[in-house]
Design a protein that fits this description.
about 210 residues; alpha/beta; 5-stranded parallel beta sheet; two-stranded antiparallel ribbon; about 30% helix; about 20% strand
Length: about 210
């Protein structure tokens, strides 16, 4: 799919999420897969910046929370274990990205970047969130949706693969490919040197 078209599709899904009051939602839990360097992260950022019909929002687009699971621990998704003041029980207290997501009051996208490079234990820790928006009794507001991106395993880049149950929780998987013609049009509008465009067309990569 062309990059701008992907961004528009993502923006539409953000604006029209699934809910008990929405009988015709756009696909949520979207995973972008492709070679490194194609701009998957930028596509998500651009999609969140596109103005949409967000009810009751003061934002021009959607708020974006970006997590890097490769740097996370399996317990991060649950929260911080904390003993109660009366010392009779313990609970998990949300912090970091989870706390941001739980406090969201406007359209929000929680984006897991380079998910395929994360250890299997970290991937497994977010399965509850992806499936029902809940974990350890903590529920996310309905204004929060999920997106993720990963490189192809064959491309190297430290990708160990994604757990099948995690991949299966993404209702839509978009394969991102280089668009030489689209890049060449952008290069012309940006006044890049014609020799650069000629080389890209000759080499077939963008």
């Amino acid at each position: 799919m062309k990059l701008q078209r992907i961004a528009n599709v993502l923006a539409k899904a953000i604006a029209n999420p699934a809910s008990p009051h929405n009988p015709d939602p756009d696909p949520a839990n979207i995973l972008l897969v492709g070679d490194p360097g194609l701009g998957k992260t930028k596509i998500v950022e651009h999609a969140c910046a596109i103005p949409g019909p967000y009810s009751g929002t003061t934002l021009p687009g959607a708020h974006l929370i970006t997590s890097h699971p490769v740097n996370s621990d399996p317990t991060d998704a649950k929260g911080m274990p904390t003993i109660s003041e009366c010392r009779t029980f313990a609970d998990f207290v949300p912090f970091g990205d989870l706390r941001q997501a739980m406090a969201a009051t406007e359209r929000t996208v929680w984006f897991f970047d380079d998910l395929g490079t994360a250890p299997a234990s970290v991937q497994a820790s977010i399965m509850q969130l992806l499936l029902g928006g809940k974990i350890n009794g903590h529920a996310l507001p309905s204004c929060v949706s999920f997106m993720a991106a990963t490189n192809y395993r064959k491309a190297g880049m430290g990708v160990t693969g994604m757990l099948a149950p995690v991949r299966g929780r993404f209702l839509t998987i978009v394969e991102v490919e280089a668009d030489v013609d689209g890049w060449a049009s952008w290069a012309q509008s940006a006044n890049l040197q014609p020799m650069v465009t000629a080389y890209i067309r000759f080499d077939g990569v963008a």
